[in-house]
Amino acid sequence: MLREFELDMPGNLQETLARLPGGTLLAGGTNLLVDLRARREDAERLIWLGNIDGFRDIKIEDGRVIIGGGTTIGDLLRNPAMAEAAPSLVAAARVFGGQMVRNQATVAGNVCSGSPAADTVPPLLSLDAEVHLTCSTGSRTVPLNDFYTGFKTNQRKHDELVTGLSWAAPGPHTANLFYKLARRKGDAITVVGVAVTVTRDGDRCTEARIALGAVGPTVFRAKDAEAMLTGEPLADDLIDSAARKAMEESSPIDDLRASADYRRHCIHVLTRRLLKQAWEDAA
Length: 283
Ligand SMILES: Cc1cc2nc3c(=O)[nH]c(=O)nc-3n(C[C@H](O)[C@H](O)[C@H](O)COP(=O)(O)OP(=O)(O)OC[C@H]3O[C@@H](n4cnc5c(N)ncnc54)[C@H](O)[C@@H]3O)c2cc1C
What we know:
The protein starts with 5 loop residues before the first strand and ends with a helix. By secondary structure, it is an alpha+beta fold. The chain contains twelve helices and 14 strands. The strands form four sheets. Strands 4-5-10-6-7 form a five-stranded antiparallel β-sheet. The protein has a four-stranded antiparallel β-sheet with strand order 11-12-13-14. The protein has a three-stranded parallel β-sheet with strand order 1-3-2, with no helix packed on it. A hairpin with a 2-residue loop joins strand 6 and strand 7. The protein folds into three domains: 6-46; 58-168, Uridine Diphospho-n-acetylenolpyruvylglucosamine Reductase, domain 3 (2-Layer Sandwich); 174-281, Enolase-like, domain 1.
């Protein structure tokens, strides 16, 4: 049973920020209401984010993709520009929950929940996204790579709202891919999530980003593996070594979905597969 709560419905951004101290933000509610019902969370006053003007906008300005704090997973799928602006994020959106969840769940809610299995986070990390935060006294931007401080904890202060996320639109010789391994194709919690971005200039890789989900206390970038690839031609044996390094950087656990050993094996296989595909696609 849900305990009783007050539902605050501010009419705009200013009112939302003014009422934020002491309240709990409610976006799609697909995490929060489940957690409240299960008594994993407690909240007396929920602040609904559904009345903020333009909060679900998706824009591309000066080569930067900007999605509002209220953008839902379904919004990503319905926006034709996103296939090029964030292929990995669209791939994650396609396998995210079921249709009803995709219509309600927001990207910002997924990022703020901070689950290591949150499916939009590996793609966003692989795109080097930034988190935009606002409170009544000002705004700041935090690289997503620095946002998480531990298992389900992050840098957001209690009086801050995530107003959006942004990243540089991938250039012509950049490939960006995501794969979610789960026990079913839909409505299943991720066993291993891998997102990669590879940029190439002729025969050399100029930048590589590898983000891993569900194999550590937070989603994270396998930076040692990335460093092995930067500046190099991505021959098969180098890709294999980097994928192995990514596996070594992870710290998966045994749980009811998979053993740690199986997860490690899958990181190696999936990272290798995605890097190889991305290297070819970026040509
Ligand atoms: C049936 C089902 C299937 C699911 N499938 C998946 C899946 O496939 N992949 C996956 O990753 N997740 C999945 N989830 C989890 C959930 O849907 C996602 O994490 C979702 O993105 C959460 O977004 P929300 O808008 O519902 O957030 P809410 O539940 O409203 O909020 C979650 C948290 O974020 C905070 N918050 C929300 N918006 C903001 C903001 N703008 N600024 C600051 N804080 C904010 C809230 O205060 C709360 O603490 C599933 C959940 C269910 C119930």
